[in-house]
Amino acid sequence: MIEEEINSLVPQRDYSRRSFVRTSVGSGFAAAVLPVMAQTQIKTGTDGLIAGEVMIPVGDFKMPAYRAAPAGKANAPVILVISEIFGVHEHIADVARRFAKQGYFAVAPELFVRQGDAGSYGEIAKLVAEVINKTPDAQVMTDLDATVAWAKGQGAAADKLGITGFCWGGRTTWMYSAHNPALKAGVAWYGSVARSYHPGDKSALDLVARIKAPMLGLYGGADPGIPNDSVDTMRDALKAAGNTRSEMVIYPDTPHAFNADYRPSYRKTQAEDGWKRCLAWFAQHLA
Fold first, then answer.
1. pLDDT at 18
2. Which of 77, 144, 154, 199 has a beta carbon 3.0–4.6 Å from 286's, enabling a disulfide?
3. What is this structure's pTM?
4. Residues 86-103: pLDDT tens digits?
5. d(C-alpha 249, C-alpha 232), whole Å
6. End-to-end CA distance of the chain
7. Is 236 a catalytic residue?
8. Is 2-285 in CATH node 1.10.3660.10?
9. Taking a C-beta distance cutoff of 8 angstroms, is the pair 176, 186 a contact?
């Protein structure tokens, strides 16, 4: 959750350790998360991949995104990779490359770009007030639809569509699953199910009856911003709505953002288990 992003970051930072350098989408790290933990950062190369920044048309607007796909492979299943509140920085790009290494056409769109450059903000509260809280779900859903259409135009198998995301992106994963009935599967990493962030928007629980795809939820049991009982409520609501293929996993004594390998919240064991579950989920449902 956004509050957990605020609480898990130190207000005063030494920017000399690792500077905010961003020449394109997917490069560098967001100013708000510096300094990153170099000792735990996972780095995935681009050998055998087509990877880098692309521009996706959304009506007359051009939305930047990071794309990673296996070179020379047509009809690769599509996975949308949705960022935290910090936008598409190096970690999110690396996640896209990890999927591409597994044979997927992965795209991480810059969903905050109309509201501002999320990566340039050094103050979380200001980022939330000026960018995140001004990004409505309707805009995000339209942008994701355009991303899927663009991927199809690139020769990817958009009929085999998955989505995954982290924190804000985890909530967006739930919301897009309710929005797009063509979605085949989703994996939501510690995304709130019980609240919204823009006035007038609903929560995932409000729309649970619309979620038909099999969803995997991965949560930290020690995440105070997402109470365990809200995760349990979502599990029960999915079953009550007839979505019996979905699963919710709660890792005991595990904080928010446990997959963020560049931050102190990273938990290697839980992150690796979550990643294995994520890959198995998509292998099962996007085949």
1. 39
2. 77
3. 0.93
4. 999 999 999 999 999 999
5. 10
6. 31
7. no
8. no
9. yes
Helices (H), the chain: 2-7, 90-101, 124-130, 137-153, 168-179, 228-240, 268-285
282, 159 Cβ separation under 8 angstroms = no
Pair of tokens at residue 23? 């020449």
Report CA-CA distances (Å) from 244 to 84, 191, 194, 234, 282: 28, 20, 20, 12, 17
Task: Report the distance separating Cα 217 and Cα 89, nearest Å.
Answer: 23
Candidate list 91, 94, 143, 167, residue with the active-site label? 167
In the chain, which residues have pLDDT < 50?
Answer: 1-21
Catalytic option among 94, 137, 143, 223: 223
C-alpha pair distances (Å), 107 with each of 12, 25, 54, 156, 165: 33, 11, 9, 11, 11
d(CA 226, CA 269): 20
Q: Is 223 a catalytic residue?
A: yes
Q: Phi first, then psi: what are they for 155, rounded to 5°?
A: 95, 5
65 vs 55: CA distance, rounded Å:
6
Catalytic residue among 256, 261, 278, 285: 256
Q: Distance between CA 128 and CA 282 in Å, rounded?
A: 31
Residue 234 in contact with residue 219, Cβ under 8 Å?
A: no
Integer Cα distance of 280 and 287 in angstroms: 11
Mind listing the pLDDT tens digit for each residue in 138-168?
A: 999 999 999 999 999 999 999 999 999 999 9
Q: Can 256 be counted among the known catalytic residues?
A: yes
